[in-house]
Amino acid sequence: MTTTLNTKRLTDAVGAEIIGLTTDDLRDDQVAEAVLAALEDYGVLVFRELRINPVDQVEFCTRLGEVDYEEGHHEVRGIYRITLDNAKRPNAHLMKGTFQWHMDGCTPLHDEAPQKATMLSAIAVAETGGETEFASTYAAYDALSEAERKHVDSLRVLHTLEASQSKTYPDPTPEQLAKWRARPSKEHPLVWTHATGRKSLVMGAHADHIVGMDIDEGRAVLDDLIIRATDPSVIYRHEWSVGDTVIWDNHGLMHRATPYASNSDREMLRTTVLGSEQIR
Ligand code: OGA
Ligand code: MN
């Protein structure tokens, strides 16, 4: 038997709302399977005011794949607290990096594959800003002309923590710089040919330059691709209400938070589903 979800497309390129599911429904393996399939189709799934509790959130994510149990400064294992408030967790201010378009996991510590999917639930929302925006990198590839595809198909890009952090902190201290540079950089193809056969672009604030190309010329190519991929006409912007849950496919999307105040109450609980597919 296959389970059919009641979905409502949110934009032409990306995103769907899943209507009428309760947290109880999420205990069903067939629902989990349907959610994975919808994630592949839509990239982002929105469960408005699902009000899932943290234990159930982690439990559901274990049905989607292997959960990341990295220390997340929350009493439930598998929950990672997203806030800019240093009183709520150490190094909270580092989350300002989420204000730039990015994919998670392009500069892994130990060569691990990028995370497959991320679930966020809203505990508290920002008074202004703090929406989360999503841009399909599958759609970005599909929108290229034949000539452009030929051009980008063989390009490789070096991804670094410094590239993304320096956009948030343009005047780093020597200590900050040293820390960023201690993180391994990673070369990825610009075009990811997924196991499914679909193709997407691998880019974001962490993309430093195109390997073997003049630095400025390569950056101009990357900037142009990112600007087109994130045009307001093709993205989905989620305006949060408390209790909303959103899950996204980190393999085929860039995402970012729109800026919100450092002293904002905004708090998201995140669970990450690890990936096993390397970018190739
Ligand atoms: C993340 C992230 C964006 C947000 O959790 O990886 O980028 O809106 N979050 O908090
Ligand atoms: Mn992120």
- SSE run: EEHEHEEEHHEHHEEEEHEEEE
Largest sheet: 7 strands, mixed
CATH superfamily: Clavaminate synthase-like
Helix content: 10-25%
- Strand share of the residues? 15-25%
Instruction: Tell me which CATH architecture applies here.
Output: 4-Layer Sandwich
Termini Cα gap: 34 Å
As residue ranges, the low-confidence spans are none
Shape: globular
Cα gyration radius (Å): 18 Å
What binds here, in terms of ligands, is: N-oxalylglycine, manganese (II) ion
Helix/strand class: alpha+beta
- Strand order, sheet with most strands: 1-2-3-13-5-15-4
For the secondary structure, the number of strands is: 15
| Number of continuous helical runs | 7
Total count of domains: 1
Q: According to CATH, what is the topology?
A: Double-stranded beta-helix
Quick one: CATH class?
Alpha Beta
What are its keywords?
280 residues, alpha+beta, Double-stranded beta-helix, 3-stranded antiparallel sheet, 15 strands, globular, binds N-oxalylglycine, binds manganese (II) ion
Describe the structure.
The protein has helices at about 30-40, 55-60, 135-140, 145-150, 160-170, 175-180, 215-230; strands spanning about 5-10, 15-20, 45, 80, 115-125, 130-135, 155-160, 185-190, 190-195, 200, 205-210, 235-240, 245-250, 255, 265-275. With about 280 residues, it is of the alpha+beta class. It has one domain (about 5-275): Clavaminate synthase-like (Double-stranded beta-helix). The strands form 4 sheets. Strands 1-2-3-13-5-15-4 form a 7-stranded mixed β-sheet, with helices on one face. β2 (about 15-20), α1 (about 30-40) and β3 form a beta-alpha-beta unit. It starts with 6 loop residues before the first strand and ends in a 7-residue tail after the last strand. N-oxalylglycine binds next to β5, β14 and β15.
